[in-house]
Amino acid sequence: MEAIGIGLVGPFIALASNPQAIYQNSWLHWFYTQSGFQNDKQFLYLLSAATIGILYFKSVLSFYGQKYVFKFSFKQQGELSAKLLHSYLAAPYTFHLNRNSALLIQNVVNETDKFCTHFMLPFLTSLANITVILALIFLLSKTNLIATLSVAAILLPAFGLIYFFRYKISQWGQEASESNTEMIRIINHGLGGLKETRIIGCESYFENQMKAQIDKFAFALSSFQAFSILPRILLEAILVTFLVGFTIIFLLSNQNAENLTSVLGVFAMASIRLLPSVSNTIYAFGIMRNSTYSVDKVYYDLKEIENLEVERGQKILDERSLRKLFDSKSYSKCCLPFEQEIILDKITYRYPSATETNLKEISLHIKKGQSIGIIGKSGAGKTTLIDVILGLLAPETGNIRVDGKTIYNDLRSWQNLIGYIPQSIFLIDDTIEKNITFGVPDDLIDKPRLEKAIQSAQLEELIEQLPDGINTVVGERGVRLSGGQRQRIGIARVLYHEREILVLDEATAALDNETESLVSEAIRSLSGTKTMIIIAHRLSTLEHCDRVYSIEKGRVVKSGSYQEVVACV
């Protein structure tokens, strides 16, 4: 369509300047004869109307074509962001042990945007532009072959610039991406520890770090942007030089001035469309090269997650994909049948980067409704054991069975039995209600169950004192609440979700004695109704436990009643 519209400009100019061109040009004469016109002016009007009509139709077609390309590309960006977030949420826990959250945020938000705007869009538009360039070159070759070859020879060096500087372009893209990630990390650190930052007075430390990364980011981005306009500037100058030189040579060769007018008309119109197409294509090649680091980051993260899933699956899941287990589409609230006991049978685990085994043939026997305590020094392996029980880490050897059935045939159903209360409760910047019903849509919240969970966690008094009650916003990470209040919201959360097994990992370690007593009372009130696995430094927290296990260097060294084990500590 581009070629047809521009191709009509030459005959129109030739016919307007010399009506006898109808009889001199075989194409015009054929069209004039076939159309049945007897008047030169009528034919000129038709040709002008056809030229204008085709150009307008081309513009409308181009608009809708670009609209479709944008819609397709940004839809792909959204799907890629969702897929990447899903992959991170479903990734094996060991993947996250070696990742900074700033990097993951950067990948989900910024790198997927860069994939869309700096790779997919340029790729699709460059395909369209290359088609236009080839069509226009074909048109020009029909007008003047030698001049067309000269134009092609001029364009090739501009593409050569991208090839020659390809490594530098990639380096600028990598530096910009790394700086962006560092900026997110610095902001997380500075604002995440705002109280410590303010008290220590190290605001300038984070500001200087931020400024250094901003300078690095600005240099990389400005270097690429400056380079990206260089081909267009050169092309404009070279094409104007070519047109002037071509005109002089044409006149010196004593060619017909009318032919020069029509040829220059076609070349001028073609240049108006050719120059942006060539410039945009060169820019697209450059920006795609610049974004290769971002594209690689996303690809290699997805690939690593896939490899970790396969590796973990080969260990204990008979090569079943963990992605299937955690797929939101197949997500099920079904729980593993639990009527009698949980048995940990000779669990052994070693972190991928560790040289020594962290857990060594640990065996536990937990009856339904029992409360067991786990004690040990820091680094003994308590938290690692909890992560294995939670299904976050897959043991190298050993098994966990519930009522005789392994949990690894249906890990999701096992996790649906568990409520986890860590030392630092994760709270979202939302209401108390949304934090207790964590992950439940508003229209599915069970109000009676919510009230029961609040009562059992002894939160009634707190909620009654708040002006907005259960609709009080707790702030980021629960900053507007005390430590004890946050812990009780954590307890209410697991009770609302009706989990049969409660895992408490140092849940009262950071609390003062009075608050710890209140939280412990809420926990003790659940004895017998819930199966509890409790890690605690404060031995008094474990007084109500039916059995206590003492762990040293990844092994169970003693087990028995609270009096039997604690007396030896």
From TrEMBL:
UniProt lineage: Bacteria, Bacillati, Cyanobacteriota, Cyanophyceae, Chroococcidiopsidales
Record PROSITE patterns: ABC_TM1F, ABC_TRANSPORTER_1, ABC_TRANSPORTER_2
Any Pfam family matching the protein: ABC_tran
Record flagged with keyword Chaperone: no
Keywords: ATP-binding, Cell membrane, Membrane, Nucleotide-binding, Transmembrane, Transmembrane helix, Transport
Any GO CC annotation of this UniProt entry: plasma membrane
Coiled-coil ranges from the UniProt annotation: none
UniProt superkingdom: Bacteria
SMART domains in the record: AAA
Alphabetized GO MF terms: ABC-type transporter activity; ATP binding; ATP hydrolysis activity; ATPase-coupled lipid transmembrane transporter activity
Location(s), subcellular: Cell membrane
Domain ABC transmembrane type-1: from-to ranges: 1-290
Full protein name: ABC transporter ATP-binding protein
Keyword Transmembrane: yes
Ranges annotated as spanning the membrane: 43-65, 119-139, 145-165, 233-252, 264-285
Residue stretches making up the ABC transporter domain: 342-569
Protein's membrane topology: Multi-pass membrane protein
